[in-house]
Amino acid sequence: MKRIGVFTSGGDSPGMNACIRAVVRAAVYHGIEVYGIHRGYKGMVKGEIYKMDSHSVSNIIQKGGTILRSARSREFMTPEGRKLAYEQLQEHGIEGLIAIGGDGTFTGANIFFEEYGIPTVGAPGTIDNDLYGTDYTIGYDTAVNTALDAIDKIRDTADSHDRVFFIEVMGRDSGYIAIPCAIGGGAEIVMIPETETSIDYVVDTLRTGWNRSKTSFIVIVAEGDDAGNATEVAAKVQQELPHMDARVTILGHVQRGGSPTAADRMLASQMGVACVEGLLQGRKCEMAGIINKELVYTPFIDTITKDKLINPQYVRLVDILSV
């Protein structure tokens, strides 16, 4: 293999640039030409492809976002769009791909390989940390610390005004951000998609705390919780506890931005090199990851279809520490 392409796809996450840097420099180290593909699959279809070298990735390791940009592509979802993408890769002589993204990104790469035989190795780039096949994903550590910093500040005002704050963090299908934020932020309650938390339980917990003369509370709500988002949960609780002064804060996309932590830069750098060397080893349709501090490769089909379960002891830890 003499020429490869790298792209980012799906939601951006802090550390993607560090991963791009590692891919480019590992390719240069191994004597391979590397091309950047702008705007993910959309750019692949449109031919937004350019050659990269070590200088292309100077001074980006500390930056959030992705210099290659990211975009949704309806065209790539069609056979006609994928044919155009294949023709663009052929025109540039690209023999293999490195995809930095999540399960949607890997689903597209899997289909593309089945149709055209272009091998892809993936790097887990998502703040949600919900990909099977790795203990941590690129951007997760930064997102948690960003959210936790905001929660610490919100607790200050909650204490000052005797308020209940319902704080919504990202996690449509996963509570991996919510759990460490709840434990590290000293929350009384955490609500995540993986476990059922009834409104009655939230009301009883807050009422019990209030009766013990506790005057401020933090409730962490993952956006995909079965009881609803933070605004919906707060409204239901306030109906039962009208004497409590409740506020809602939705942290939103602030969790995706910012300079990556040292942990994310390390992980991204490892994953970038592992992707390049995985392609050179003949791997295809696999995601690089770290499990128990060891490099592993997991088939895309597993990362897409298998669930990454949260340790129930973490949920129990929130209950124990909130008394």
UniProtKB/TrEMBL annotation:
Spell out the Gene3D superfamilies in the cross-references: 3.40.50.450, Phosphofructokinase domain (3.40.50.460)
State the needed cofactors, names only: Mg(2+)
Q: Matching SUPFAM superfamilies, A to Z?
A: Phosphofructokinase
Keyword Magnesium belongs to the record: yes
Keyword line: Allosteric enzyme, ATP-binding, Cytoplasm, Glycolysis, Kinase, Magnesium, Metal-binding, Nucleotide-binding, Transferase
Q: Where is the Phosphofructokinase domain?
A: 3-278
Q: How does it assemble?
A: Homotetramer.
Functional summary from the UniProt entry: Catalyzes the phosphorylation of D-fructose 6-phosphate to fructose 1,6-bisphosphate by ATP, the first committing step of glycolysis.
Please identify the protein, giving its name as recorded. Answer: ATP-dependent 6-phosphofructokinase
Q: Which organism is it from?
A: Pontibacter rugosus
